[in-house]
Amino acid sequence: MLRNELSQTILEVKEITKRFGGVEALRGVSFKVNKGEVVGLLGDNGAGKSTLVRCISGIHPPDEGEILIAGKAVKLDSPMDARKAGIETVFQDLAIIPEFDVVQNLYLNREILSTNPVLRWLGWLDAKAMAKRSQKSLNRLSSRIPSLSEKIVNLSGGQRQAVAIARAVSWGAEIVIMDEPTAALGVEQSAQVNELIKLISSQGVAVLLISHNMQHIMETCDRAVVLYQGRSSADVAIRDVDKNALVSLITGASGSLLAESA
Ligand SMILES: Nc1ncnc2c1ncn2[C@@H]1O[C@H](COP(=O)(O)OP(=O)(O)OP(=O)(O)O)[C@@H](O)[C@H]1O
């Protein structure tokens, strides 16, 4: 049974430390995320959440510590390294181009070239193949995007999130990190994003969710990891806490609460 549990750990962050000059933004942070699990990454302003996400996304190399994917230590020197390791990050700006349509955004920087050798040589894209695969990615997310040829600029905030999440998943992500995915959304669209998160986790994709919205965390996450002044101060199952307890952990009022085995 222990072996089964271990084999389910998709991401492990081990004793990560990151300094910026004299500022120690992360001080030996450790936690695990299992396959298909939704874990909230919580912490007050300046606690170290963004720095930790940047370390896991290959943007900031940590000064000390290790990142393991499926039990194997990985060196993430660039966002491409992280992507190759199965880590996709959906940042708040979503990194989508509003003037491009859904398909163009799903295939940004990884367009499929035409199968015809001459057209391929000329750099022609296989629009049909891209549209087919895009539809598959979006179907997988049961999304309500009206049309693949719709420009992003015409989509709602929730639909844009769906496109960004679909792209992350269609790149074969084992773990998707989402930075405040519902911050700019209304109630109904937030609920749709929550549904998407639950859907991809039910398909085995792990999600690390940064949010200041306790309701969102309570509704969506299985577990929460709390950072306090650059340290992991709590690792709790959501079923064991309520909103007030989470807030106390974030503000440091409850002290440290680390699970024996996350
Ligand atoms: N590039 C940088 N250079 C210097 N200091 C930095 C840099 N990035 C982050 N820090 C510092 O590291 C600490 C952690 O910041 P970080 O942005 O990771 O926190 P956070 O939890 O994401 O906060 P917020 O919720 O406000 O975004 C802060 O003291 C911050 O000032």
From TrEMBL:
Highest taxon, organism lineage: Bacteria
Residue ranges constituting the ABC transporter domain according to the UniProt record: 11-254
Keyword ATP-binding set for record: yes
Transmembrane spans: none
Entry keywords, A to Z: ATP-binding, Hydrolase, Nucleotide-binding, Sugar transport, Transport
InterPro entries tied to this protein: AAA+_ATPase, ABC_carbohydrate_import_ATPase, ABC_transporter-like_ATP-bd, ABC_transporter-like_CS, P-loop_NTPase
Molecular function GO terms recorded: ATP binding; ATP hydrolysis activity
UniProt KW ATP-binding keyword: yes
Pfam families: ABC_tran (PF00005)
Gene3D superfamilies assigned: P-loop containing nucleotide triphosphate hydrolases
SMART domains assigned to the protein according to its UniProt record, in alphabetical order: AAA (SM00382)
EC number: 3.6.3.17
UniProt-recorded name of the protein: Simple sugar transport system ATP-binding protein
Species annotation: Paraglaciecola arctica BSs20135
